Amino acid sequence: MIDLEYILGKAKLDLKNDITFKDMAAEWLDVYSNTDRKKISTVRVRKHEIGHLNTFFGYRKLKDITKKKMYQDAITSLKVDKKLSENTISGIHGTARMIFKRALEQDLIFVDPSVGLLICQKIRKQSKKSKMKK
């Protein structure tokens, strides 16, 4: 009996380790949209923000998303390459924070890659400095 419980527990852990960002975001959105009477327009905006995040992380395993190399680069790309506004990027980042927070609560990840992000104003200053050097 103990061996069976161990095997089932290990299987659940393996399934947790394989969850993708896209799957986690869908699960989070389902819970988010059904609590506290969220407005339809708010849920629509969150779906749009998740779409931007899925461009970068959709099929990546949650546990493989790193702070510096992946998350920071994705947010920087949204600002520099896609030229999204600071307000839009702030919303995308806020949505990511909520998704990663839920993943932390469910023990799917141990570190939130969205913590300590350099956002818009700092990115813009860095971008201008690099253009001046060229």
Question: What does the model show?
Answer:
By secondary structure, the chain is mostly helical. It has one domain: Orthogonal Bundle (DNA polymerase, domain 1), CATH 1.10.150.130. It is built from 6 helices and no strands. It has helices at 2-17, 21-33, 40-57, 67-80, 86-105, 120-133. The longest helix is centred in the last third of the chain and has 20 residues, at 86-105. It is globular. The model has no long low-confidence stretch (mean pLDDT 83).
Low-pLDDT stretches are none
CATH superfamily: Tyrosine recombinase, N-terminal domain
The first-level CATH class is given as Mainly Alpha
The span between the termini is 67 Å
Number of strands: 0
Topology order in helix (H) and strand (E) letters: HHHHHH
Could you say what the CATH architecture is? Orthogonal Bundle
Give the assembly state of these chains.
Answer: single chain
Please state the CA-atom Rg, rounded to the nearest Å.
Answer: 17 Å
If you average the pLDDT, what whole number results? 83
Counting helices, strands and paired strands, the structural category is: mainly alpha
CATH topology: DNA polymerase, domain 1
* Largest β sheet strand count, sense and barrel closure: none
Tell me the number of structural domains. Answer: 1
Gross morphology is: globular
Percent range of helical residues: over 70%
Count of runs of 4 or more consecutive helical residues: 6
Strand content: under 5%
